[in-house]
Design goal:
single chain; alpha+beta; 4-stranded antiparallel β-sheet
Length: 123
């Protein structure tokens, strides 16, 4: 099974967006180890919302684009990882190991199973 992990950070906390060399080294080792074990498929961090855009479509089919920063959001996506796991419990365990890397930073990780083709209703 594949799971998507999205981590959210408080955009108002500068240290959450400016990793130290020690953190980069620690995260790099964790990523390499997880890749070597066949758990990690891909992982990336993203820039703060000030460098992003939000594209919305209403029920009336109107499309709007809002450039960041998104002041209504306290916590925004700071990165993601796509992993292989036997089940949700194993994916959550991996998320706990991942989240432990972020010393002194408030962070949350959402873990969601990816919908595979065989999960879709067959007609």
């Amino acid at each position: 099974m594949r799971f998507l992990m999205m981590h959210r950070l408080d955009e108002r906390v500068p240290e959450a967006w400016n990793p130290t060399p020690e953190f980069i080294e620690k995260m790099g080792g964790f990523i390499q180890q997880s890749f070597d074990k066949g758990i990690l498929i891909t992982a990336e961090g993203v820039h703060p919302s000030e460098k992003g855009s939000l594209v919305r479509k209403s029920r009336a089919e109107k499309v709007t684009v809002t450039d960041g920063p998104f002041t209504e959001a306290k916590e925004v996506i700071g990165g993601f990882a796509l992993i292989n796991a036997d089940d949700r419990a194993q994916a959550v365990e991996f998320a706990e190991e991942y989240i432990a890397l972020f010393d002194g930073i408030e962070i949350e990780v959402e873990v969601r199973q990816v919908v595979e083709f065989e999960d879709l209703p067959q007609s």
